[in-house]
Amino acid sequence: MKIVVWNENRHEKENEVVSSIYPEGIHGAIQGFLEKEGLDVSTATLDEPEHGLTEEVLNHTDVLVWWGHQAHDEVTEEVAERVKERVLEGMGLVVLHSAHFSKVFKKLMGTSCDLKWREADEKERLWVVNPTHPITEGIGEFIELEKEEMYGEHFDIPVPEELLFVSWFEGGEVFRSGATFQRGRGKIFYFRPGHETYPTYYHTDIQRVISNGIHWAAGLATPKPVYGNAQPLEPIAGKTAAGR
Amino acid sequence: MKIVVWNENRHEKENEVVSSIYPEGIHGAIQGFLEKEGLDVSTATLDEPEHGLTEEVLNHTDVLVWWGHQAHDEVTEEVAERVKERVLEGMGLVVLHSAHFSKVFKKLMGTSCDLKWREADEKERLWVVNPTHPITEGIGEFIELEKEEMYGEHFDIPVPEELLFVSWFEGGEVFRSGATFQRGRGKIFYFRPGHETYPTYYHTDIQRVISNGIHWAAGLATPKPVYGNAQPLEPIAGKTAAGR
Amino acid sequence: MKIVVWNENRHEKENEVVSSIYPEGIHGAIQGFLEKEGLDVSTATLDEPEHGLTEEVLNHTDVLVWWGHQAHDEVTEEVAERVKERVLEGMGLVVLHSAHFSKVFKKLMGTSCDLKWREADEKERLWVVNPTHPITEGIGEFIELEKEEMYGEHFDIPVPEELLFVSWFEGGEVFRSGATFQRGRGKIFYFRPGHETYPTYYHTDIQRVISNGIHWAAGLATPKPVYGNAQPLEPIAGKTAAGR
Amino acid sequence: MKIVVWNENRHEKENEVVSSIYPEGIHGAIQGFLEKEGLDVSTATLDEPEHGLTEEVLNHTDVLVWWGHQAHDEVTEEVAERVKERVLEGMGLVVLHSAHFSKVFKKLMGTSCDLKWREADEKERLWVVNPTHPITEGIGEFIELEKEEMYGEHFDIPVPEELLFVSWFEGGEVFRSGATFQRGRGKIFYFRPGHETYPTYYHTDIQRVISNGIHWAAGLATPKPVYGNAQPLEPIAGKTAAGR
């Protein structure tokens, strides 16, 4: 299984708080804990040619992890469409935190993906509402993060196919923090935590959920369905020569 | 409640079989049976300025019914985006037959919306799989259509929020023929039947389902959620002056 | 539409705090605000013969509202089964607060329906996560209750068909507070608030949600499906005289 | 992973057609192809003490496969409840064909689980409607069975959490043939095919689906949620000494 971690990688260059927490970048931190599991992980970032997501790279990617925030608009329409098409063909996609507003996620959801937010160093507690799912495997009743950005309802996404986590925030809001979707032959997992100014991706439960999500999202060995004009499988009484 | 029935209205101009079945156009036939119920219904077609879907028209439309087939690409990106945005704001959308491939439906679904098809004058039987839903109210166990175009699985849509009808086809396929989705504050109903060369829209059960779908899809008097930066509703111990 | 509000009606007799808040009983308070809307509402309680839920009564009930807590076990198996069967035949059911543990709800869910709870006069904020549903119509972004009993995840119910409200609690938990289910031809709405020691059922938003839920749950004019041995609708090549 | 295949094992004793197709019993045939995969599989049947499902056996079972038909009522209430409780605690359950009417499945679903049926040696074609699911992995667009019993809609089950297969029948019906449900911490897969008078369980695609279903349904290493009275995780302003 080949994994690519994509990161905008701008905050790390512009903000010392972020670069001190993530000296290798958020992508580097995620690559780090995934490689410790023995996974095959490479990275790609916004400022590389084609954002590091060439046809060649995507055609050999089983699961793509996406983190973006301030520069969603700098992702070219061409690359965003290319990634979307690969998801529809079966590439898994793990969408982290502010990537709820990425072009790729919005194209796949069909909604604004808008939400409430607040930066106030407040406590978040992610409650497991589905303890039977492989993505919550090994996690206790909740994950507690001392300081995170708040995301609050209403979260303008389609009704998730599976709701896995619901967050409680110190400031009074709740949020559907872990949700899955299918699009085409691709599986998508949205996971809320991971604001750039907090060491969230060093939290072992957060790492476990992201790793579980990658394994869940990986494509399966199922033949691609056939679309288009089809010959009948059974005799048709009234069959005519009608063509399209 | 204000309803607009949109139709591509090309087959009716180019094909005598179609114009003989639908002398007022498919839009005219649908408007006809809806008005018999006392509903306020107008129509719009592809060749009108802005396809008849100006900001003014859409801002006063509660439910839009959409039929298109051979000229999906002639619908301008601007109008397709405008309609999509209105759905996200709460306008109901009833998508008929080959409109599964319309720009508007594909943008809202995020998938290819592809399927199998065959024109062979074959029998279709739409089975009700959800007898508790307002859209199937008043319909018996199934609706039988002597001759229709076949649409077969796999139908490349997101998992429907509600599956209402499953079709049996004489030639050996099945199809998820009636399905609902939510996007933003808008409700969407996809209903399969209605190939232009058959008098499907004169079938009283088909009319009942479309009418039920319109009533189900109409927007509700619920305040629009507030998005963006939010003040805390509860005191936050560690609150800082951190801004974005 | 005929509505019956069922209440255990024991706390009201044994606890002065409860009887001072609900002098007519919880059932009386609910009947009161529903009748103000012009609805046809009667009540039934545990200590009546057959708990007030005779065949005669149930056969003429469109929607049953259920509140119970300390005496779930005193509801006879016969009446619990009778109510369950009526729901499967199309009677709507609105399940309030501690009725999550009622025999009827547990039989319909197939799970333990267990949860976390705490009585600490704490604040609850019910967030609307589905602003397109008729049950949330007219409600703002959330409903705030100054003091309520806490119910916390994990709530051991099947995955709801529709999730409408998620509660935030002052003490740190979240809860899926408004959820819908279908069983047979019946529609079920579970709504969390309403501990007996608080005046929750006098809150106008709570009243609106219960009223919306009753209208949503009311049965529809759809024929009952036919079950059992069926004759073929199409010729079968290999048909034999095989019997069961 | 420990698998137990339970079978009523009555048709095999009473009907020569069945015993000639399944000389080792349906349970033996299923055990046979599962063991070829190297799985640890034992069997249990109705006429064994406690139907072969003692506390001891169930406590060491990860996934239970269930086939029953003519003697559902002979399964004792005690054993049916015991199996149900084990599913709620996390044991996977694969429910085959006429076991839709088993006590265990009906208790877990909360509905009648009724359907249409016909024995006419007719063709069934199971179409994959979800090609992204591990249970459909490796299966093509459909599975064709030359002769099977027909099961037709309406199938009176709760809305499946995941719909995987839809069957087309020669006689004109459709059926939701593969569906998943969660109850408590247990995962349930219902799979339609397998009438006793046909060699369905020797079909390699049917074997693959049952095997996939078993792997999908196996319990995960997630801690059991804690239920009951809970201490607050956060300070509560209005906290009182109120007890229950």
TrEMBL record, chains A, B, C, D:
Pfam families: ThuA. InterPro entries: Class_I_gatase-like, ThuA-like, Trehalose_catabolism_ThuA_prok. Residues 2-217 form the ThuA-like domain. This is Trehalose utilization protein.
